Amino acid sequence: MKAQNAQTTARPASSAELAVLAALKAVVPTPAAPAASTTGGTARATFTAALPQQTGPASDLMPPSTNPPRNERLERAVRDAVTRTQQENIPLPNVTERNELYALAQKMRNEGCLDVKQIEDALVAKLREKVDGPSQPRTKAELDAVIDKAFKRVYDNDTRPTTESEKAQFREIAQELAAKGGDAKSLLYGLSEKIRQVKDWGGKPGDPGVIKAAIDKGFDRVFEGKRKPSSAEYAEFTKMAEEMAKKGSSSQDIMYAVAEKMRAGESTGGAPANSPQVIDDAIDKAFKRVYENDARPTTESEKATYRAFAKDLADKGMGPKDVMYAVSEKVRQIKDWGGKPDDPKAIKASIDKAFERVFDGKRTPTPAEYTEYTALAKKMVESGSGSQDIMYSIAEKLRSEKDFGKTPSAEGIVNTAFQNVLEGSYRAPRPREMDAWKKVADDLLKKGMSPKDVLLEIRTQLRVALYNA
Asked: Which residue ranges are recorded for the region named Disordered (predicted)?
């Protein structure tokens, strides 16, 4: 009865109440219809989030060189930099520090940096200095702080105090690295390497005691403690180590060089690397390597073909292993291409394989194309290129013509760049955009840049323009 009375006494909603209901409907999402149950149970209501509509950028995307970032965009870069550093627990900048960040952003823009992402990264680095120290250490106190970090890194001990003597020992090196423009990270790594050298070897690479240790360790790597260097070997390797140390090699580099040289000597039974026996053995191994057949005998004629080449390399100090690799390269050239790079058979094979790579066997070269690419191949051979390099070069040229036409269109390149960068939100370049980007593309093409490289450059600049928007 009460329910009936309630129904009969309900009054119609007022116009004000209807307006409120309409407003609520506009802001509250309507739940999706419940999915039909296939099990007979009660289906849960499911809510489907609306997919964001992909639309092209509203503002014109102009080349950064003609449209430097505006002050409003730099203000947003400051805000974005602060947001990024909050994930690293870096203290929020105060008003003065925010103004300094904005001034730095303007300074970078005014000095020619047109990429807001680069500016933003510089602002993040500036904010990190509050925790990590300056990104470009230069003062004595700043360099000492990096030296301290390097010692803690090498000794893997954050509580280890770095003594004044240790700081003094590496201060000059730190100053040299800083003078070369090194940032905090490069200084830290450079100093760590020097400190580790002293920690592991007891001194600098050129110190007599350190050189002896490097030679001893080199022998231990090869002979596992069963043989020590003779006096003559100490003299030979000390001279080599001193020369390497002067050129900046570390003790570890010297140790590996000693071991490599001894291992090479062991592989030749003590015979000199340029002896006939060792040379022939290197050639034989090269043929077996290329043909992937250890049972394949290398003929006397094959050995004779490469003896002079291999001996020349050995006379210049190359070890048997490296001689073998160098001969392998020559042998593979003949095996794969039918002759030396300038041989007509090899040139024809390079052209044919290039067409095969690009057209998958659906098209072969015309006589005119053979003539054109033979001339290109001969020119490349004169510059020292091998058949594989020639093939790749011809294939690159063919692919460019296939993708962009014999006479590349700047307009086509620009449109392709917009498609690549905007992807799902692609819109055709507007007339003003097309005119500006066509000019950039035309200028690059006139400078001799390939259409593919022009496309890559336009895409790079377009991504900058999109981020700057």
From this structure: 30-72
